[in-house]
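1st attempt posting a full record on here, be nice pls
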Amino acid sequence: MDLSKLPQLEGWIRAGEEFDPRTFLLSTATVGEAAAMSTLFWPDFTEYRRGVFLSFLFEQRGVDAWFDELKGDKSAVEGVVNHVHLWDAFAPKSEAEYTVLSELASRIAAMWRAALKSAFPTREFVVSVADASEDYGPTISIRSA
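the predicted structure (as tokens):
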């Protein structure tokens, strides 16, 4: 990811040097913000009706309604419930931010794959990333393979 084009990082990145996020974060982010982001980047999961759902999106009545609507297709229900539009969590304000947010979606998807593998080592999942042209901004979703 090319962070040098982000206005917020101007002055924090020196030409020819590797970006050190520690000083930037120490000056700009709170522990609460970091903790909240960590739950998006490495989420907890809820198992329900043999499906796996992002805990922060899980609502039993809604999931039950999707199971009814989709005739018990667990993977389809997971795909509907387990999707996150990054525009709902981050509001890009420049073209550079839109570009980095798309790249960030791929990194978050990699973290979700690792979190799923850690939580469910014997199960297979598909973690997908769709971009703005296909959906409402960069979108990440999970379903059983």
